[in-house]
């Protein structure tokens, strides 16, 4: 299990992004904005909101709009290149996907640390419920929140 800490520092690394268009013709690959967002995601140590990612980019002198950040994060999330969770307040948080396999997250409510967890029992339950209801092609999201060992002992 990987133990991640939130929020972020940005390092200057670029990862190729998918050649995909957003509504309105905005490209995700090959643009400077896509490259700086990719570098920011690579530098995140945990889940962060789009606003936090945008603020970090601005602190480093990048001129990128918040709407552009949201659009790029949406495409990257749909492509499975960015993990998303919804925090206790309902806000969507993002981080670079560390695993290619389907997985879930257990996130500390106090410090924001997150670990990727297998969810075999959840997967079997979701399949059973879908089958019983006659549904097919079912997706699901499971978000687990608690206190990590460090916060629980503090």
Please report which band the strand proportion falls in: under 5%, 5-15%, 15-25%, 25-35%, 35-45% or over 45%. 15-25%
Major sheet details: 3 strands, antiparallel
The H-level CATH homologous superfamily, spelled out, is: Winged helix-like DNA-binding domain superfamily/Winged helix DNA-binding domain
Radius of gyration, in Å, reads: 17 Å
CATH names the topology as: Arc Repressor Mutant, subunit A
Could you characterize the architecture of this molecule?
The chain contains five helices and six strands; from the N terminus they run αβααββββαβα. It is 35% helix and 16% strand. By secondary structure, it is of the alpha+beta class. A hairpin with a 5-residue loop joins strand 4 (104-108) and strand 5 (114-117). The protein has one domain (32-153): Winged helix-like DNA-binding domain superfamily/Winged helix DNA-binding domain (Arc Repressor Mutant, subunit A, Orthogonal Bundle), CATH 1.10.10. The strands form two sheets. The protein has a three-stranded antiparallel β-sheet.
Quick description:
By secondary structure, the chain is α+β, with helices and mostly antiparallel strands. It has helices at residues 32-43, 50-59, 66-78, 120-133, 149-153, and strands spanning 48-49, 82-86, 92-96, 104-108, 114-117, 143-146. It contains 5 helices and 6 strands.
Features:
globular, Arc Repressor Mutant, subunit A, 154 residues, disordered N terminus, three-stranded antiparallel beta sheet, 16% strand, alpha+beta
């Amino acid at each position: 299990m990987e133990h991640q800490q939130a929020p972020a520092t940005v390092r200057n690394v670029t990862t190729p992004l998918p050649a995909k268009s957003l509504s309105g013709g905005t490209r995700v690959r090959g643009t400077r904005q896509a490259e700086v967002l990719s570098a920011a995601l690579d530098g995140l140590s945990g889940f962060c909101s789009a606003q936090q990612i945008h603020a970090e980019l601005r602190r480093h002198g990048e001129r990128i709009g918040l709407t552009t950040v949201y659009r790029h994060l949406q495409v990257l999330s749909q492509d499975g290149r960015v993990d998303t969770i919804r925090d206790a307040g309902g806000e969507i948080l993002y981080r670079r996907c560390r695993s290619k396999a389907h997985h879930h997250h257990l996130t500390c409510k106090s410090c924001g640390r997150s670990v990727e967890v297998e969810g075999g029992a959840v997967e079997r339950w979701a399949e059973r419920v879908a089958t019983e209801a006659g549904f097919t092609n079912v997706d699901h999201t499971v978000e687990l929140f608690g206190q990590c060992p460090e916060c629980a002992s503090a």
